[in-house]
Amino acid sequence: MANIPQPQVIFLDAVGTLFGVKGSVGAIYADLAQHHGIEADPATLNQAFFRAFEAAPEMAFPGSDPATVPEQEYCWWRVITQQTFSSAGVLDRFVDFDGFFADLYAHFATAEPWVIYPDVPPALERWRRRGIALGVISNFDTRLYQVLEELNLATYLSSVTLSSEAGAAKPDPLIFATALQKHRCDASQAWHVGDSKNDDLEGAKAAGLHGILVRRPTT
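The structure assignment produced for this chain is given below.
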């Protein structure tokens, strides 16, 4: 790393790199379901969620009217959540699944279910002091803007590039090119840091950036 010149821009993945879920997705789903009168096992929900999530199509809507993107994101997540509870065998117990999902979706737009990794603030401060521009490249949805604000991370960032808005998801080179254009930066002058070998490390390298893989605890 010492032989690599300082970059003009460092891009970072969001979930799993800057911050992660408090506890587990399954535990949060189970807790909110309980508020709607549904008892479900957190571990079963967690396993069901990741099966549904991994089988889902990319969160990218090429050619879409930007005004329709939030609705498409909402529907994308609703399908995954419905599959999660169906796989866990409790979907038919809901009296008002739509109401539950609306609460769940709003909850994940806040800081409450997230925790910043302890090494993140010092790293962001260090890079900012060195005059390096910072940006996020994420396959998350537009709720990320609010989450970054509530976690007090937005102040460090010059750009946020989302797959749902870019029309392409990592590891597609298009999303990296979209982010680079915002900084008028050549790929050779940029780093990308993330926790996915395929999406972040290999995706960045294929787009001409210097890719850096981080390892985080899994839940």
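Interim note for the steering committee: The first helix runs from residue 25 to 35. The beta strands are 9-12, 19-21, 114-116, 133-138, 159-162, 190-194, 210-213.
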